[in-house]
Write a structure and sequence with these properties.
The structure is a homodimer. By secondary structure, the first copy, chain A, is mainly alpha-helical. The first copy, chain A, has one domain: Winged helix-like DNA-binding domain superfamily/Winged helix DNA-binding domain (Arc Repressor Mutant, subunit A). Chain A is built from 6 helices and 3 strands. Chain A has a 3-stranded antiparallel beta sheet with strand order 1-3-2. Chain A is globular, with a radius of gyration of 15 Å. The N and C termini of chain A lie far apart (39 Å). In chain A, 34% of the residues are buried. At the A-B interface, helix 1, helix 2 and helix 6 of A face helix 1, helix 2 and helix 6 of B. Chain B binds a DNA duplex through helix 4.
Chain lengths: 122, 122
DNA sequence: CGTATTAACTTGTGTTTTGCAAGTTATACT
DNA sequence: AGTATAACTTGCAAAACACAAGTTAATACG
């Protein structure tokens, strides 16, 4: 049996807002999911698998649960079963847009030397 | 023998700037180190251990090497031995400030409910 | 100058988290 | 009713993390 992570179980490393943001989103996949939802508006489970980063399904499922329990994403129709019931960002999730914009801008300006193929758009 | 991670060995998940930024900084500790350096200007190895998040020394050493190999941080005096030779941000590292500001702002606005003790400053 | 301190790591070990492949369940279409 | 397939789960190997302890070498002190 796996240890279930949810927003109740979380222990915060400190009272610092930056550290707290990283407690919640400081991994390689959560913000990729948010990015996909910003770009596409809504996305079903299997559509997330189409992104070039190729997230594996167990991690995708775990992160979708996690982001849902944090209130950053939700099913488009909260009543229906999950098949073909896409995910979308809540207001909290949408508010991450400036963070992603700054991160993308930084990468374009400072990672090009290491990664010449990096593209110029968000 | 441990697998040494450095900027040569890195494989990028995609050409997306956001994904690329996360390839490099998408973990729980790298941006904490950057935050400490933004706040304090310079920091010695052991001073990093004073921060409330209590990074362990093996991870600290690994991240300092990593951030150095990426050119985000450097020793204050590149000639001297490392004892009492503090680290500081390079221009690339300093350019992360807006990213941290947006992340901190987001946390203050959207994590207060889950984490009431979160503070209001950077 | 020799010894003691201590900053800056390194190593060892156990525990989580990740990554990949394969399997399961249930909805919806025919 | 039967089949296809979206949405997960499970199992296991590999990597990352956490914690404690040990090592090395530069500086402070007598």
């Amino acid at each position: 049996m796996e240890k279930e992570l949810d927003s109740e179980t979380l222990d915060w490393r400190s009272v610092c807002p930056i550290a707290s943001g990283l407690d919640v989103l400081g991994d390689k996949w959560s913000l990729i999911i948010v990015r996909d939802l910003i770009q596409h508006g809504t996305r079903t489970y299997s559509e997330f698998g189409d992104s070039p980063e190729r997230i594996s399904t167990n991690i995708l499922a775990a992160r979708l649960k996690w982001l849902t329990s944090l209130g950053l994403i939700e099913h488009v129709d909260p009543e229906r079963a999950s098949r073909n019931n896409a995910y979308r960002l809540t207001a909290s999730g949408l508010a991450l847009r400036p963070v992603l914009e700054e991160l993308g801008r930084w990468s374009q300006n400072h990672l090009k030397a290491l990664h010449p193929d990096i593209v110029d758009i968000l």
